[in-house]
Structures are given as C-alpha cells and as structure tokens.
Amino acid sequence: MTLEWICKHHTDLDKDQLYAILQLRTEVFVVEQRCAYQEVDGQDLTGDTLHLMGWQDGKLAAYLRLLDPQSQGGDVVIGRVVTSPAARGGGLGHTLLLKGLECAAHCWAGTPVYLSAQAHLQEYYARHGFVAVGEQYLEDDIPHIGMRKA
Question: Beta strand 76-83 with 113-118: parallel, antiparallel or unpaired?
Fold first, then answer.
C-alpha cells in the first residue's frame, strides 16, 4: 500500500483536506463506534495544531492530530488516531503512529508525547514506547488510559 504522508499546520489545510479529516473521524468515532459526542471539539484550528494525513488514491486512509505542548501543559498530545475501515488490516496504524512521532520530534524535539488510549490498545501503544500514567477512566462509555512517551 503506497501512501502519501502529509503533515500540515492547521493554517495550511485546504477545505477539501479538512472536510476529509472530519468525514473520516465522524465515520469511525461517531458512527462506527456509536459515540454520540462533539467530535469537532474546537482544537483542530487553534494554537500550533498539526494534522498528519495518509492519502491513498485520493482518499484519506489514515489520520492523527498533534496538539502543541504550549496549549497542552507541556506535552505534545496525539489524538484522533484513525484508519479508514477500507485501509485496515495491513499494519497501517503502526506506520501512522511512527509518522506522528516523527512529526512531533521534528516540531517539538525532546518534548514528551501523551495520548489517551482506549484501554484495550494499551499493549499496542506500549510497543511504541508509551507507558501508562494514572488510572483507567471512562470516556464516552469506553475505558481509556493516559499514556506517555518520554
């Protein structure tokens, strides 16, 4: 699977890219996972938010968001990690996370990275150097745990 990886500051997104991002996130987080919540949370277009996109054949196959450490209390925060249903099963999630960590290191070298993981994915993120911090908690009726990579 050949993907074109693009990491953009929110001010550089065009309307078609932003639409594809919101469409994929809504498809997976709201519809597929059946979580009725405010997916468009006001953080996509603020601060130094970055958007990492993996495009295949003109379609958004993978995405994650990086929130800048200045707005997040000192850590880069990775969130909205998603692969399209059509692109699953080939290890794309690992590539997405590695690319996200590369973007974070390039823009905020030496800054710890934090994410809120669905609890059943704790071992998945641990393979990338993340360790659990704090206790499990419910978010949208799904068990989550905070994880940090120094």
Answer: parallel
Q: Which of 59, 101, 102 is nearest to 83 (CA)?
A: 59
Question: What's the CATH number where 40 sits?
Answer: 3.40.630.30
Instruction: Label residue 110 exposed, middle or buried (CB < 10 Å: 0-12, 13-18, 19+).
Output: exposed
Domain count within the chain = 1
List, in sequence order, every beta strand (DSSP E) within 10-97: 50-56, 59-67, 76-83
The Cβ-side half-sphere exposure at 72, using a 13 Å CA radius, reads 22
Look up the domain containing 104 and give its range: 4-149
C-alpha angle 2-120-66 in degrees, rounded to nearest 5: 50
Per-residue pLDDT of the chain (150 residues; tens, 9 = 90+): 689 999 999 999 999 999 999 999 999 988 888 877 778 888 999 999 999 999 999 999 999 999 999 999 999 999 999 999 999 988 899 999 999 999 999 999 999 999 999 999 999 999 999 999 999 999 878 899 999 998
